[in-house]
Amino acid sequence: MTMTPLLRVEGLTRDFVTKKDLFGRATAKLRAVNDVSFEIAPGETLGLVGESGSGKSTTGRLVLRLDDATDGRIFFEGQEITGLRGGGLAPIRKKLQVVFQDPYSSLNPRMRVGESVGEPLSVHGVVANASERRDAVAELFRKVGLDPRFMDRFPHQFSGGQRQRIGIARAVALSPKLIVADEPITALDVSIQAQIINLFLDLQEQMGMAYLFIAHDLGMVRYLCHRVAVMLRGRIVEMGPTDQVFANPQHGYTRALISAAPIPDPDRELLRRRLPYELVPPPEGAQLAEVAPGHWVLAA
Ligand SMILES: Nc1ncnc2c1ncn2[C@@H]1O[C@H](COP(=O)(O)OP(=O)(O)O)[C@@H](O)[C@H]1O
Ligand SMILES: [Mg+2]
């Protein structure tokens, strides 16, 4: 790619200490994220999929600089942000936002939702006074399909889907370049999930931001993501354009994941067979190889 990617991570690695001796020295550690590299172009959606515990959320937190990498580098708009802290991160925070799985735990229960949505606007000095802020918040409410008259209510007065809309309004308040969405529909009723996915799509069309979309529902990934990266035990085992990965999955784990996802067509769903896959960690030192343009597979 000749254009500067919006986000580039190189060899991202995160170890967690799982056991310490009497002196507080690490005696066991878990490599939650292992040598992960990928890029996201402006306006692009990269899906990150894999079973629970494969390192998806940790990867998201590293990208957001909510956690420090053990190794590897992170570039945002060409600028290395790996070691940035505090004030150095402020301009990045504005462009890099997050939507969590559970909007209830990410919203302050004692804060009126309009305050929560408007908070980033004040923190970053985007609005000059309270009335400008109210107008901006009302506009954000409309943008995510909420009635602005509800902005003085508290989070518990909303349904799960509405709360996720509030979380999304807060995330888009500063017109970010990238949103990390960590399983943002997993906690919602199935009937609501598609609405929230469509909201993500609409907002991307209007505002042009990129998404790192963490999910385990492959159906949604297929619908929403331009490219997909499959994680297994901390490593990316396959990555490529969504159509291509679904049409021609190369890694055994990708095949197993796809075979486990229900097919919306009932005739084909009847014939679907789940492929078994033993969740063994990829061999140490295995490298990704490009099997088709942009389609990478970890060599077995
Ligand atoms: N703060 C932490 N301390 C210790 N281990 C952690 C911590 N956060 C995550 N882990 C471990 O790292 C691995 C990856 O976790 P996570 O990134 O949450 O996976 P995923 O989001 O794919 O389910 C898991 O084994 C998890 O238990
Ligand atoms: Mg997770």
How would you describe this structure to a colleague?
The protein has helices at residues 56-63, 86-95, 103-106, 113-123, 130-143, 160-172, 190-207, 218-224, 242-247, 252-260, 266-271; strands at 7-20, 26-40, 45-49, 71-76, 79-80, 96-99, 178-182, 210-215, 227-232, 235-241, 288-292, 295-298. The protein has 300 residues and is α/β, with parallel strands linked by helices. It has one domain: P-loop containing nucleotide triphosphate hydrolases (Rossmann fold). An 8-stranded mixed β-sheet has the order 6-7-8-3-9-10-12-11, sandwiched between helices. Helix 4 runs parallel beside helix 6 (160-172). The longest helix is centred in the middle third of the chain and has 18 residues, at 190-207. It is globular, with a radius of gyration of 20 Å. The mean pLDDT is 92. Adenosine-5'-diphosphate binds next to strand 2 and helix 1. Residues 16, 30, 32, 50, 52-58 line the site of adenosine-5'-diphosphate.
